[in-house]
Write a structure and sequence with these properties.
heterodimer; A: 361 residues; alpha+beta; 2 domains; four-stranded antiparallel sheet; 38% helix; globular; B: 294 residues; alpha/beta; Rossmann fold; three-stranded antiparallel sheet; 7 helices; 12 strands
């Protein structure tokens, strides 16, 4: 009997209902609030904001709730919302040197002006399950507020740069505004601002693996974590009608400055070069991986041989976006009857030609 | 079909007017240079990449409030993806929809060209997963762009030649490369090569949208579209041994349907509107004959 592919519309509507029911789970358990998500799942929120390219903890929490905790689905929701938002203006570059620090560590210097601040980190927890959290009702000890320094804590790398040992990231002559990758297509070769923008939105897992590969011989960049800092920084905007900067609030970011050995080239003396990473919220893994990949992608500019995947900008930048990847991988769920039918016909014909009788079922 | 109500929280056809203008400009450029891939600022859509975001953006920028829309996937109006995209436009644009090919002003399609010939004034919008026909031969876009610029298509011809050398025939059955207006080699999107001849000198405007890859290209009405081949190995299309089991068509692309656990198969039209129209016509004819006899 032939059953036509019908009833797609009813199926979709039923699917919505099932999805809602499964997302809500057991109705005897209280519903989770978006305030609970943004307060208690802050790292998930940070990832969704970073890769969703929008700083809004409340919407990120909503997206996580709606996506039943699936980070990539939540990023999708946030990005689809972001498309519809008007561009009101562009902020001034962040002054991360004036960050109110929660945390700041350098693996290259034992001590540095402003000091090392361990701050909140899972690094030195011993990863034993804390069964007391099962019961709830924890009362955390008073935490120390972020270091409230009005004193600027400049990046440690800038101190080295004064000696000429580290390249200076000077603003290029006639520096044009960076392209907006969400408004213009990515073209190759891509300049560094474009690459960094792509990496900032890139999937954390992908960047982690690419960064990791550079540590295992697929392009050697000899990295040192010059500095990693996390804290809140003021966001400033120059409204056209005012003509001077006004603060529009503070955002939390994680910044990583990686320093890498560089043997020099015909044009440049031996010196340390840099890789840069920046992410919304507390996202050290992302920021560090990003800085490794940023440095690897500078191979062409620094006259290094482009041999490893992490150095190939088309490979990295075209595959870094998790929505593009997730969508295209999962589109294989869509019907391909027609293409498959065409291939079936071809394979049958080729098998006949091969002298093997076709197996009739 | 119970149409979802028009959602007035979003702009007509979802995208804002400036974005639609940007896309229309890309389409105009694409029409001016048939087969050339125009890079455009593809937006992040509320549907996943690979599910028709390019086609949806093109359709969104072409639709007017009075247009009638048809959406097909695998030739059928009823597959879930087609239903979903049609609902998206009902919800965001409130346009009239149809399943009948001749009634549609805009037809968005995935993987098929309708069997009913298109007419002047119609626009067919293809969803394109991979706009670059040479991507599998040369993955670097910076390189393929040069090859197109120089009209250097040796790579593609060598690939087709190697097929012939190995199998005795060209082993590409869908997304079969075409030469548009004698200049650009173009990916026709994963339509079966059965549909390729329909692109040639078609009276309708054909627009191709690739959202993830951020490219738009077009074939204007009455433009020559030639499937790549060799003089001694001419282009051929698929043939079936039996007609459609439902409408008896011998000229349409047939899907193979397995109907029981013993592998019994039947072949039916992939174009559901074409098949239904033919069945209705046959029924009407039959009734007329009966009346004439009575």
């Amino acid at each position: 009997m032939y059953v036509a592919v019908k009833g797609g519309e009813t199926a979709i509507l039923n699917s919505y209902a099932l999805l809602t029911e499964l997302r809500r789970g057991d109705p005897a358990v209280p519903e989770i609030g978006t305030d609970q998500i943004s307060a208690q799942l802050r790292l998930a929120v940070a990832r969704v904001m970073t890769e969703g390219s929008i700083y809004d903890p409340e919407l990120a929490a909503l997206a996580l709730k709606q996506a039943a905790g699936d980070a990539v689905e939540a990023i999708f929701l946030l990005r689809a919302h972001r498309t519809t938002l008007p561009r009101l203006g562009y902020s001034l570059p962040l002054e991360t040197g004036r960050m109110h620090l929660w945390r700041r560590v350098s693996a290259a210097f034992k001590d540095l002006p402003g000091g090392q601040i361990l701050g909140p980190t899972y690094d030195y927890t011993q990863r034993l399950l804390d069964f007391s959290l099962l019961d709830g009702g924890e009362t955390p000890a008073a935490a120390q507020a972020p270091v409230d320094n009005d004193m600027a804590t400049p990046s440690v790398i800038d101190l080295l740069a004064q000696e000429g040992l580290v390249e200076i990231d000077a603003v290029p002559e006639g520096d044009s505004a960076p392209r907006d990758l969400t408004r213009e297509p990515l073209r190759f070769p891509a300049d560094r601002p474009t690459r960094l923008q792509n990496l900032a939105r890139a999937d954390e897992g992908f960047l982690l693996a690419m960064g990791y590969s550079t540590q295992r011989g697929y392009s050697h960049t000899h990295p040192f974590a010059g500095e990693i800092r996390f804290g809140s920084v003021e966001l400033e905007l120059v409204p056209e009608e005012l003509g001077f900067p006004v603060s529009i609030g503070d955002i939390e970011v994680t910044e990583c400055q990686m320093i890498n050995q560089f043997a020099g080239s015909k044009m440049l003396p031996p010196q340390f070069t840099r890789g840069y990473g920046l992410a919304f919220g507390h996202s050290e893994r992302k920021a560090m991986a990003m800085s490794l990949v940023d440095r690897a992608l500078r191979a062409r500019e620094l006259g290094e041989a482009v041999e490893a995947p992490a150095q190939m900008e088309e490979f990295v930048l075209s595959h870094s976006d998790n929505l593009e990847a997730s969508g295209f991988v999962q589109h294989l769920k869509l019907p391909h009857y027609v293409d498959f039918q065409s291939e079936l016909e071809l394979v049958r014909r080729m098998r006949r030609a091969h002298g093997q009788p076709e197996e009739e079922a | 079909m119970n149409a979802p109500p028009r959602d007035h929280h979003v702009n007509f056809a979802y995208l804002d007017e400036r974005t639609k203008r940007m896309i229309r400009r890309a389409i105009l450029k694409a029409v001016c240079i048939p087969g050339y891939q125009v890079a455009f600022g593809s937006r992040e859509m509320p549907l996943p990449y690979g599910w028709g975001t390019g086609g949806i953006q093109v359709t969104a920028s072409l639709l007017g409030p009075d247009d009638v829309l048809k959406v097909i996937d695998q030739g059928s109006d009823d597959t879930v993806n087609a239903v979903n995209i049609r609902r998206f436009f009902q919800r965001t644009a409130g346009v009239e929809v149809t399943t009948e090919t001749p009634c549609a002003d805009v037809i968005q399609t995935r993987h098929r060209i309708p069997e009913t010939p298109l007419r002047e004034g119609q626009i067919i919008v293809y969803q394109v997963p991979v706009p670059e026909p040479m991507q599998r031969l040369e993955p670097r876009e910076a390189e393929t762009r040069k090859l197109h610029g120089l009209a250097e298509y040796g790579l593609m011809h060598v690939k087709l030649y190697e097929d012939i050398a190995r199998f005795g025939h060209i082993a590409t059955t869908y997304d079969y490369p075409v030469l548009v207006n004698g200049r650009y080699v173009m990916a026709p999107s994963p339509i079966p090569k059965f549909d390729n001849p329909k692109m040639h000198m078609n009276p309708a405007l054909q627009v191709f949208g690739a959202g993830r890859e951020k490219r738009i290209y077009a074939v204007p009405p009455y433009t020559p579209v030639e499937s790549l081949a060799f003089d001694d190995h001419p282009f051929t299309v698929q043939k079936w041994d039996s007609p459609c089991a439902l409408c008896g068509a011998t000229d349409s692309f047939l899907d193979e349907v397995i109907t029981d656990d013993h592998g019994t198969r039947m072949f039916v039209c992939s174009d559901s509107d074409y098949c239904r129209t033919r069945q209705q016509a046959a029924q009407a004819c039959g009734e007329e004959k009966l009346r004439a006899r009575a």
